[in-house]
Amino acid sequence: MMSNSHAIHAEPLRLTRELKAPRQLVFEAWTQPEHLQNWMFPKQGFACEYVSVDIRAGGSSLHKMTTPSGYEMWLLTQYEVVSPPDRLVFRQYSSNTAGEIVPNTQISNWPPEIRATVTLEEVGDKTKLAFIWEPINPTAEEAEAFEAARDQHGQGWGGGLNQLELYLGNVSKQ
């Protein structure tokens, strides 16, 4: 950690989507590995593999995202709130293959702990999704790194939500 150990506020990344799918299906897409592995990546060419899954309040999951170039990124997710069909809150960490939390090697001073909040609201036959991604108690350096990578991570999560929309369109047709 850096010498500045005082946590500061970092502006969260906020994304919204209106999805042409029932809220229950959207919730299942966020909480069932058979769905998650089909969309939890920013664009085609990436792969996502869940190696352990316990999606419930107090549970965790471990997954590997592989880029088209073959780089593997491991992520540990710890679930705080799993409230079907409208709310999911989890913390995400860079990890190794054993699920041990490790520093992010791709971005210097990256916040070690980030909370995601997903809320789902029924709007007719569609679902309004709101996504908030925010570092937990970042140092000034970590908040700066989060802000500097905002566009990159906005594209990552935004791309993931685009993949979710495509996936839900295919699942709804089946």
Automatic annotation (TrEMBL):
Start and end residues of each Activator of Hsp90 ATPase homologue 1/2-like C-terminal domain: 20-168
Gene3D superfamilies per the UniProt record, alphabetical: 3.30.530.20
Source taxon at top rank: Bacteria
InterPro entries in alphabetical order: ASHA1/2-like_C, START-like_dom_sf
Family named by the database record: Belongs to the AHA1 family.
Name of the protein in question: Activator of Hsp90 ATPase homologue 1/2-like C-terminal domain-containing protein
Record lineage: Bacteria, Bacillati, Cyanobacteriota, Cyanophyceae, Acaryochloridales
